[in-house]
Amino acid sequence: MSEYKKTNKYTAVNYLLYLLSKRDYSEQELRRKLNQKEYTDEEIEQAIEKAQANNWQSDERFCTAFIRYRSLQGIGPKRLKQELKLKGIKDWLISQELENAEVDWFELAEQVFEKKRPMQWDIKAKQKMWRFMLSRGFSNDHFSHLMDIDYNDYE
Question: Where is the RecX first three-helical domain positioned along the sequence (predicted)?
Fold first, then answer.
């Protein structure tokens, strides 16, 4: 069996530009995608350096856009931090961008809570909502005050 080395139609820089023309990527995501296309480590390194030098790729910009996009989907700060870590963003950058994000996490938690709240408000519904809000990445502080309201009086 002969050794088959895949030859790429485009240079690593061109492929990277193609990817970035569609959406922002973190550095780690780009490295993984270039690796999948079997570019050499040297080609990958040069492509990433060129992209960052020309400000085509920035983990800060990616992080800001990701936080804005996912918070509009009703995702809280804890889950955002976890998702960004998986995308290779450094802890200090995540903390900085979450701090600078123009998102009122309490207001967002309230909106998500109200949208999902069941009509029948009993202990089982409260437990379900608690789990739901935690799974969305909100901390207890963001929504615990909403649990104490007796919604059955308002119906």
Answer: 12-50
